[in-house]
Amino acid sequence: MPIIVNLDVMMAKRKMSLTELSERVGITMANLSILKTGKAKAVRLETLEAICRVLDCQPGDILEFVNE
């Protein structure tokens, strides 16, 4: 898939665990894990906004397009 999810990279930079991010964003660890592993088919803008707010980053820091 040409969209790469770098959520784990941003979490590492912010020294934040999956559990902490899940609690602060308000989504389940299972759904966050699906997103983190790149298995998600879609992400709500509301969810992306909350993740960016908590991690203090831009959407482009989390999502990357790779032209294959």
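That was protein one. Protein two is written in the same sequence-then-structure order:
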Amino acid sequence: MKKRVFSGTRATGRLHLGNYLGAVKGYLELQDNPDYETIYMVMDLHAITTPYDKEKLAENTRNVVMDYLACGLDPEKSIITAQSLVPEHTYLAHILSSEITVARMQHLPTFKEKVKQHPDHVTMALLNYPVLMAADILLYKASLVPVGIDQEPHLEVAREIGRHMNEKFGTDFPEPKRFVTKGEYVPSLTGEGKMSKSVEGSFISLTDGSETIKKKLSGAPTDSGRGEKVPEKGGVANLLQLVELFEGLENRKKYEEQYLGDGIRYGELKAELAEFIFKELEPIQKQRKVYENDPSLVDRIIREGAEKARVIAGETMKEVRNKIGLIK
């Protein structure tokens, strides 16, 4: 039997380079592997665990789906839909929440980080975010999950809950493993951390044009351009990481040699990097126009994807209901 893959992106706006290199490229690799059955969703229920604009949520969801399709995800090969259209996610999440403690959830570093970001919005939904994520994965009995390394604590929660359910009730949930992509960590343009939609000025969107990319890169922090040691963190280190991701290791080494020698001309580096980034994004942007001009096709893909997902989800919930003793 084929192994199943599940992953998704929160519906908080259009995808950026971090999403593309850290997740979507992994989605494509697994989609084209005949050994796997792939399910990719836009996680709109996860999006409402922090403050959001209800007027833009549906639009954001469709935008992510269009980005998926433009990047090459194929509804003939993968199930592509929105999380909220498969109510079995929240059904299973409620059951799984009875098998893990509040203390365990409160100690997760991701929860503590969100509490700091949104001190006035510490809801039960936020606390239960990892349980819902566990349900997302276990509902499809997925064995591989293409996500960034920052999601590893949540994956461990899914593994813990799955093991506990198997031992206590005799279910057969697999232990999901993270699928690692080449660009699993795409650095921020601000010089600190990774690209994030929640940090203004840190990211390049997949829909950004050539001039926008140049402008964003021009603001990335640098130094004098030369020194006795190549920086390992900060703005320069992040730029060199982006060079490696889009231009290759040889070009990175070229710039490192310049840094240790006569010095880097950052204007030239940024201009060249902008060209390489846009070269990769241009065909994606052209394909996206096709879907922007046919919204009914996008809605049909989402709807049909939900129907396919619910068939699998229904089978799992039937098994779980029987195993835990709910009325038949």
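The mean pLDDT is 95. Keep this in mind for the problem set.
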